[in-house]
Design brief:
The complex is a heterotrimer of chains A (213), B (289) and C (422).
Chain A lengths: L3 H17 L6 H35 L5 H20 L12 H32 L5 H16 L2 H6 L6 H11 L1 H25 L11
Helix pairs in contact in A: 1-2, 2-3, 5-7, 7-8
Chain B lengths: L1 H16 L3 H13 L14 H11 L6 E7 L5 H17 L3 E6 L4 H12 L3 H4 L9 E6 L4 H7 L3 H4 L26 E6 L5 H12 L3 E5 L4 H9 L6 E3 H11 L5 H35 L1
Parallel strand pairs in B: 1-2, 1-4, 2-3, 4-5, 5-6
Helix pairs in contact in B: 1-12, 2-12, 3-11, 4-5, 4-11, 7-9, 11-12
Chain C lengths: L2 H32 L28 E7 L8 E6 L13 E7 L7 E6 L5 E4 L9 E8 L2 E4 L18 H23 L9 H16 L3 E4 L8 H20 L3 E5 L2 H17 L11 E3 L4 H15 L3 E5 L5 H11 L3 E6 L5 H7 L2 E4 L1 H11 L2 H34 L14
Parallel strand pairs in C: 8-9, 8-11, 9-10, 11-12, 12-13
Antiparallel strand pairs in C: 1-2, 2-5, 3-4, 3-6, 6-7
Helix pairs in contact in C: 2-10, 3-4, 4-5, 4-9, 6-7, 9-10
The chains are: A mainly alpha (213), B alpha/beta (289), C alpha/beta (422).
Chain lengths: 213, 289, 422
């Protein structure tokens, strides 16, 4: 029963969702299932929070390696939750001027932006390691990368001014045609992969995700 | 003498190929940060995909309603926030009515930050824009693409009230706005999921609304297939798209000033790639000889 | 072959046949019972000339109001269209908007149901009762007064049992679906279905072995999305295989996740894998733990784990966004072998550049079939190729037709019209 019930539920919900796409009156069921998923996912957040607190709490209690970080995690979670719920004006907690907004702008935003900014450095180091003209295909990739990297910024527009801004227009051409063609091909392949994978899950052929062989 | 020189050369190229990545990071840090201290106004053309976004908004008459979905968080602020500010400027200057929403929890907050900036402009301050009459913030609602789908039938299915808890029926701007039929244009500012792809699949393909997009530079290439099929009116791609949009609305601001920094950084990366390939080929030549 | 495996295989075979028949019967029943949709009939209105006195200050009323059922929906909605007032954008240019009025009687009882701005020429009434006749009028509003159009012809809404605007998609889905079913069934009797080598999946055993030899951890990251993403499901499937190997080789496995539901699922998968490997004692719930939902906080936490624990093998299998390169580069910097897999076109280039092995797009979804070598799963991959063949053929024919049309001035059909509903 433990294995069969999830498989039957998956099959019923999956088939209903597919059919509802073509049969408008079944949208009611489709909306219902979608709402159920979001409710479950929302409540599941508490599972995650509980796990986070337990794991870090245990780390602090046993004074394991890196336990001060556990204190930072739990304190950060508690402080922001309390401020957001109780001290930021209820529903308009996101409005400018509230303590929550202050934390958002002065703590969360710089931290988040910093992590994203790391990409600039990692792109440089990854490019330096990966872009080698080892063979013809790699050389073509390298050439396209050069044209795009220079053509997509004003430098390309300036340096090729004598050639009618060729770099900038070449970059636009690569974006419009070869790049778009490649994107389309990958998207079509992925879409078919998703369809096949979803059918396998609905039919109960793919069960590893539900802890069944 | 030759042998020693050959050994030094070999060592130098090998060292170059296995350079500590922190040296590359240092060069990039300098390349990005130093230009920020120079106030440079760069001349660049507005690309067709950006011009289409501008034209789509410019064609609207005063009083038209535009919906803007803020689907990003602070990490994408440098790229998308200038687009948001420019969009608000263009809309308010044309006396369009703006409905703000977000499929990401931080989205509506990003909108508030953009509004705060835009309201400092003298020409917009002079208009004395009123919340609920000229613009409204519906806030965030969970559900991802399900929200997009349901709004196509009735906004109230996903947004019974705005971000301040006021029922939509009590907001003057929302009177007569039932679903996408009452919206003249949608702009989606997106950094990932849910984002422009979901808006195209669930709003454009099903309800045939007009959609324009602003995306991060990584995402923008994925949008080109949708432009070619007419599903997207245009796209603002990355900081360059934002800068071009600022030039199009004749208000060069943050994005234009950041482009100098980005240009130098790109040049430095190209320089390192060239150096790396020279080292690679020199070593390969050494090995074959 | 153990008894448990026998039963499982028999049940699997049965479930496919039953599901096939069940699906076919559903479609057949639906078509027989609700095959044809009946569109609301339009009763054309007579074009009436409206005499406008020269000295009138009221706006010119809108004309030609047409109401009809919105097709391909579940009912309860009527669309109304009209021609704008002559004073809207022209003439006196003073129309400030329109009001939509509705009644169940032609000449009386109109109620106001909506507003639209000037320039609008359509409105959707989404709160109608099916099979009730409604009449509509459009009222033009201006500072000097209002004027109403003539009533529309009556219209009623009704539900359609099939959305014919999606017919192309339906037929395509049927073809691809049946191709997949056919090859699944055929694969049961056919032996040795060919599948090309996928380097990333061949390297899984080596990666786990390396971690065992070095005495360092294996970190498995199933992406940052929830269980409603197929990529996450595919990633979790690979986790089952990696966990089984880790149990057999006695390697340390950790699975830090970003979503609570994924945590719950991964725990079940890893526990089952350890059980199947005969090492239930080695399993510990803390092997799978939740970090945070926030994308970059998750990336920061993982970076910290990589730098402190210096894992020997890192698996990045699932749906990733901007944090992909951050994770891949950091793992590379600590010398871990990396096997990545994602179906995100935007992140594939970063994984290809930074990781040792990358499963590109469909290869991620093919992983379960590849690793298990189950004939039925391999058969489904073959069915998928039928879909690809259809698209290739359509693209080729479409390009040839369009080229001939533009070069030779022929009038060959545009295949884009055929795929419009997709």
């Amino acid at each position: 029963m433990r294995r069969e019930v999830p498989l039957v539920l998956t099959a019923i919900v999956g088939i209903t969702m597919i059919i509802a796409h073509f049969i408008p009156p079944l949208n009611i069921l489709k909306n219902l299932f979608e709402d159920w998923f979001f409710i479950i996912a929302a409540f599941a957040i508490y599972l995650g929070i509980l796990n986070l607190i337990l794991i870090n709490g245990d780390k602090i209690y046993k004074k394991q390696k890196g336990w001060p970080f556990g204190v930072v995690v739990i304190l950060g979670f508690l402080v922001i939750t309390v401020i957001g719920i109780f001290f930021s004006g209820g529903k308009s907690f996101q409005d400018p001027g509230t303590p929550f907004y202050y934390i958002y702008m002065n703590l969360y935003y710089p931290l988040s932006a910093t992590m994203f900014a790391l990409l600039a450095f990692f792109v440089a180091s990854a490019s330096y390691r990966a872009f080698r003209a080892r063979n013809v295909e790699a050389s073509m990739l390298l050439g396209a990368a050069f044209i795009l990297m220079l053509g997509r910024v004003p430098i390309g527009y300036w340096v090729s001014a004598g050639l009618g801004h060729a770099l900038a227009y070449a970059a636009d051409w690569i974006m419009d045609f070869p790049q778009t063609a490649g994107q389309r091909a990958i998207m079509i392949g992925i879409a078919l992969g998703v369809v096949s994978s979803a059918l396998r899950v609905i039919l109960g052929l793919e069960r590893a995700y539900s802890a069944g062989e | 003498m030759n042998e020693t020189t050959n050994q030094e050369k070999k060592t130098f190229w090998e060292k170059l190929l296995s350079i500590d990545r922190r040296i590359i990071f240092l060069f990039i840090a300098v390349a990005i940060s130093v230009p920020l201290f120079f106030k440079t106004s760069l001349d660049m053309p507005v690309s067709p995909v950006v011009q289409e976004v501008y034209n789509a908004i410019d064609k609207l008459r005063a009083g038209s309603k535009v919906l803007v979905s803020f689907d990003y968080d602070p990490s994408s602020m440098p790229e998308l926030q200038p687009m948001a500010e420019s969009f608000f400027r263009q809309c308010f200057r044309k006396n369009l009515k703006v409905i703000i929403m977000g499929l990401w929890p931080q989205g509506p907050l990003q909108a508030n930050i953009a509004l705060e900036q835009v309201f400092k402009d003298e020409d917009i301050k002079a208009k004395n824009l009123q919340y609920g009459i000229d613009y409204v913030n519906l806030g965030f609602t969970a559900g991802n693409e399900v929200v997009i789908d349901r709004m196509g039938h009735d906004f109230r299915e996903s947004y019974p009230a705005d971000s301040r808890g006021t029922p939509l029926s009590e907001i003057p701007l929302m009177k007569g706005v039932r679903n996408y039929d009452n919206i003249d244009l949608i702009l989606n500012l997106s950094a990932g999921y849910p984002g422009t792809m979901e808006w195209v699949q669930y709003a454009v393909d099903v309800f045939h609304v007009k959609l324009a997009a602003g995306n991060t530079a990584v995402q923008a290439p994925s949008m080109y297939p949708y432009i070619q099929t007419g599903q997207l009116a245009g796209v603002l791609g990355g900081m360059k798209g934002g800068a071009e949009y600022e030039i199009a609305i004749k208000n060069p601001a943050k994005a234009v000033s950041y482009m100098f920094s980005q240009a130098i950084a790109h040049a430095v990366i190209c320089f390192f790639i060239i150096i790396g390939n020279i080292a690679f080929f020199s070593l390969r030549k050494k090995k074959t000889s | 072959m153990s008894k448990r495996e026998n039963v499982t295989k028999a049940r699997a075979g049965k479930s496919v046949t039953l599901d096939l028949s069940f699906l076919f019967l559903i479609f057949l029943a639906l078509f027989l019972l609700f095959g044809q949709s009946i569109l609301a009939e339009e009763v054309p209105t007579a074009q009436e000339e409206i005499a406008i006195p020269k000295d009138s200050v009221l706006p010119v009323p809108p004309t030609n109001v047409i109401a009809k059922d919105i097709p391909n929906d579940k009912g309860g909605a009527i669309t109304i269209s009209w021609e704008r007032s002559a004073d809207d954008g022209g003439g006196a240019k003073n129309v400030t908007g329109y009001e939509i009025l509705r009644s169940t009687k032609r000449d009386e009882g109109y109620e106001h149901i909506g507003n639209v701005p000037p320039g609008a020429t359509s409105f959707s009434d989404n709160v109608t009762k099916d099979k009730v006749l409604y009449f509509y009028k459009i009222r033009a509003i201006s500072p000097t007064g209002t004027s109403e159009s003539e009533p529309s012809a009556p219209a009623f809404s009704k539900r359609q049992w099939f959305d014919f605007s999606r017919l192309s998609l339906f037929i395509l889905s049927l073809i691809i679906g049946f191709a997949i079913f056919y090859f699944i069934e055929k694969a049961k009797s056919e032996k040795g279905l060919f599948i090309r080598k996928i380097a990333g999946l061949e390297a899984v055993d080596d990666a786990v072995g390396r971690a065992t030899e070095m005495g360092r951890k294996i970190i498995f990251i199933p992406g940052i999305m929830d269980m409603d993403s197929m990529q996450t499901i595919a990633g979790v499937t690979i986790l089952g295989r990696v966990a089984k190997l880790a149990a057999e080789y006695e390697a340390k496995l950790e699975v830090p996740v970003s979503k609570s539901l994924v945590m719950v699922t991964c725990r079940e998968v890893v526990k089952e894998a350890y059980l199947n490997a005969g090492r239930p004692d080695a399993y510990n719930d803390d092997m799978v733990y939740y970090l945070t939902d926030d994308q970059f906080a998750y990336a920061a936490a993982l970076d910290g784990i990589f730098l402190r624990d210096r894992p020997a093998a890192v698996f990045l299998q699932g749906q990733f966004y901007a944090e992909a390169l951050i994770l891949a580069e950091t793992a590379n910097s600590v010398g871990a072998i990396q096997i990545a897999g994602t179906a995100m076109p935007t992140q594939l280039p970063f994984f290809v550049a930074a990781c040792d092995y990358t499963l590109i797009g469909e290869e991620l979804f093919a992983a379960s079939a590849y690793l298990s070598k189950d004939p039925k799963l391999l058969g489904s991959l073959k069915g998928q190729d039928v879909g690809k063949f259809i698209f290739l053929l359509a693209i080729l024919i479409g390009v040839v037709f369009l080229t001939l049309n533009s070069v030779l001035g022929l009038n060959l059909p545009d295949l884009r019209e055929l795929f419009k509903g997709i």
